C-alpha cells in the first residue's frame, strides 16, 4: 500500500527494554495514534542508554539529518539520573549541545514551588535541551520533552509519554488516517493464501494482511484490509468474503 | 556495564506491529531469554514486510555480513502468504536465493499426511529457505525456521516463536547470565539520582538503572542493579540501601 502520508520512525531508548525487564508500551501506543492520524510509521528501533548508539540511530532515522524518514519520535532517557543521556545525545546528533532552557527551568521552578520542594541540580538537569530546540509540554510532571529538526523527544514513563503525544501530534502536519477492516476465519493461513493473493492483486492501493494464531481449538487467521478509502476497503472485503464463502 | 557475552540484535518483521494492530511480544520474550542465558541484546528493530528494508536491516545487524552484532534473531514473515517475504529477503541479504529444503518438505509432508490434508503449493512455500541454511525445528506446526550466517529466522506467531527459541538457544554458544536485584522506593527519581550516581561510580562493572513510575499515590522509582557477579551486586545494593536509608 502506498500513501502520501508523512513517514515516521520511533526510537525507544532504554537498557530496561533490552534486558527484558520492561515490555515496551510506548511504541505500540504511538503506532496506533500515528495510523489513526495520518502518519505512516515505517520503522521502530530500540537502543541502549549509549551515546554512540543514540547518535547513530537519530542520524539514520531523521531526514533533516540525511536519515530515512520524515519524522522521528523518541521515548526515554530524559530524566534526572546519570543514565539519562538522551538530551546530550540528540544534541550531538544535531551538531549542537544541550543547555538549560529558560522556559523549562521556569516550569520546573513553578512545580517545585507548588510542591514545596527545592529545584535541586538533579531536577534542573531535566531543563537541559539542545540549543535551538522547542519544548513539548508535559501535562503530568512539568519536565518537558523537546523538538529539534524532525526529531521529537519524549519521556519514557508511559503516562508522561502519552501526555506528550496528546500534546504534540495535533501540532504536526498529518496526512490521511488509515482505515481497516478485519474478518476472522477458523482456518490456517495456507488455506486462505491463494484467495488473499488474488484479491490483493486486484487492489494494489490497499494492504491485505493475514495474521495467523493458534489456540486450544487449533489454527485461525485474521484477515485485515487496510487503506485510505473506506469504499475500496469495503469492495475488497466483499470479494474476499465471497471467495472464502463467509 | 561491560560483559564479554556475545552481542545480539532482534529484527521484528511485520506491518501489523507498525500499524499498531499488534503489540509485539516476541522481542520482549526473547530479550528475557537472552539476558538469562548469557547474551547481550543491544538492539531491536521493527521493519515492514518490505524486501529492501529487511535486506538493509539484516546486513546492518549480522556481523557475518559486516553488521554490528554477533547474532541476529528475526521474527515474522515466514508463513505461506504473498506478504511472507522473509526467506527471500534474508537469502538476498546473504547473497543467495531461497529454494525448497528437502528436510523441510519432508516435515511438512509428514504433517499433512498426519492431518489428512494436501501439501499444496501455498503450504510448500514454507519449505523454502536460503541455499546453505540449516533448519530450526518448529514443535507446533512443522514449518521450520532457519539459520544462515549469524542470522536466525523464526516465525511471528508467538507460540511458534517461543517453541523455536526453546529449541535454538541451548544450541548457541552463550556467555554468562546477567543477574539483577531491584529495590523500590516511594520517591521521585530526582530524589535518588545523587546517591545512585555515587554508587554507580564505585561499581563500574555493574549497571545501575532507575525506572520511575507514576500511580495514584504519586511517584515511585525502581532501582535495579545488574551484573554478572552476585556478590558484587549484593555489595552495591547494600551501599545503595544504606545511602537511601532503606
Automatic annotation (TrEMBL), chains A, B:
Pfam families: FLAD1_M, MoCF_biosynth. It comes from the Bacteria. InterPro entries: CinA (IPR050101), FLAD1_M (IPR056596), MoaB/Mog-like_dom_sf (IPR036425), MoaB/Mog_dom (IPR001453). Gene3D superfamilies: MoaB/Mog-like domain. Residues 9-176 form the MoaB/Mog domain. PANTHER family: NICOTINAMIDE-NUCLEOTIDE AMIDOHYDROLASE PNCC, NMN AMIDOHYDROLASE-LIKE PROTEIN YFAY. This is Competence/damage-inducible protein A. It comes from Paracoccus stylophorae.
Amino acid at each position: 500500500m502506498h500513501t502520501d502520508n508523512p513517514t515516521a520512525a520511533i526510537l525507544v531508548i532504554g537498557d530496561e527494554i533490552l534486558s527484558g525487564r520492561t515490555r515496551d508500551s510506548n511504541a505500540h501506543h504511538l503506532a496506533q495514534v500515528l495510523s489513526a492520524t495520518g502518519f505512516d510509521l515505517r520503522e521502530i528501533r530500540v537502543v541502549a542508554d549509549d551515546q554512540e548508539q543514540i547518535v547513530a540511530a537519530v542520524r539514520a532515522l531523521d531526514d533533516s539529518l540525511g536519515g530515512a524518514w520524515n519524522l522521528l519520535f523518541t521515548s526515554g532517557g530524559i530524566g534526572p539520573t546519570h543514565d539519562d543521556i538522551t538530551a546530550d545525545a540528540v544534541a550531538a546528533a544535531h551538531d549542537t549541545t544541550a543547555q538549560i532552557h529558560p522556559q523549562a527551568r521556569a516550569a520546573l521552578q513553578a512545580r517545585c514551588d507548588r510542591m514545596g520542594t527545592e529545584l535541586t541540580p538533579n531536577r534542573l538537569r531535566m531543563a537541559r535541551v539542545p540549543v535551538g530546540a522547542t519544548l513539548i509540554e508535559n501535562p503530568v510532571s512539568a519536565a518537558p520533552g523537546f523538538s529539534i529538526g524532525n526529531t521529537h523527544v519524549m519521556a519514557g514513563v508511559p503516562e508522561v509519554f502519552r501526555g506528550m503525544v496528546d500534546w504534540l501530534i495535533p501540532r504536526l502536519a498529518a496526512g490521511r488516517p488509515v482505515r481497516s477492516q478485519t474478518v476472522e476465519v477458523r482456518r490456517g493461513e495456507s488455506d486462505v493464501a491463494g484467495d488473499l493473493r488474488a484479491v490483493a492483486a486486484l487492489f494494489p492501493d490497499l494492504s491485505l494482511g493475514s495474521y495467523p494464531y493458534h489456540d486450544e481449538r487449533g489454527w485461525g487467521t485474521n484477515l485485515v484490509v487496510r487503506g485510505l478509502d473506506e469504499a475500496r476497503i469495503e469492495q475488497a472485503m466483499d470479494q474476499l468474503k465471497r471467495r472464502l464463502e463467509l
